[in-house]
Amino acid sequence: xxxxxxxxxxxxxxxxxxxxxxxxxxxxxxxxxxxxxxxxxxxxxxxxxxxxxxxxxxxxxxxxxxxxxxxxxxxxxxxxxxxxxxxxxxxxxxxxxxxxxxxxxxxxxxxxxxxxxxxxxxxxxxxxxxxxxxxxxxxxxxxxxxxxxxxxxxxxxxxxxxxxxxxxxxxxxxxxxxxxxxxxxxxxxxxxxxxxxxxxxxxxxxxxxxxxxxxxxxxxxxxxxxxxxxxxxxxxxxxxxxxxx
Length: 245
Known about the structure:
- There is one protein chain.
- The chain is globular and about 55 Å long.
- A six-stranded mixed sheet has the order 1-2-4-3-5-6, with helices on both faces.
- By secondary structure, the protein is α+β, with helices and mostly antiparallel strands.
- The protein has helices at residues 2-23, 76-94, 110-119, 124-136, 138-141, 144-147, 150-157, 161-171, 174-179, 185-192, 195-211, 233-244; strands at residues 48-50, 56-59, 65-71, 99-105, 219-222, 225-227.
- Mean pLDDT is 86; it is low at 1-38.
- β1 and β2 (56-59) form a beta hairpin.
């Protein structure tokens, strides 16, 4: 009888305990932690997506550190930053899934706009190498900006968008550069005539100045917050390292 009584007492206690947990879910087992943002062994340098704002994001979309870079393709500081930082960012920041980089255009001039339209002419998977091509080889093509004739400059700045951007692409040998990326002249011309995209890039540039306080390039945001005084890799690197540790 004592054993039956004890068993009955235990059963009643279990029933009461289960009722308490049902009534108060917070007393149950603690919630599971979220899955790691970057699966082990995955190299996020292979992941590029185009966003609704016509920017491109390289890396883990769920990374805890989201770096935004505003760039202009005719900006020498942007070219210098890319040459210094790209390899280190992709190796220690992007590849392991710790962070992502979003490239946004800050259009400064007709030549910059022309390059921006061409970098949008490829698939997201091809974007990063096309973007790097124009920045790492900037010294090879930028010189014409200073030596162009008055007739060339007039073609760059007057007439419909398509005639202006195509004249720039021809004079700066951009067609040849795009051909090396597998983009035909016909396809490039179609992209260079994209007035809707050109207008969106211009609006994005104005928004960057108004909302993100961008005055020059390169300019950076980390997790949505503008960073002052970080136009170089030497200045940006410690900001990222502090957030990765």
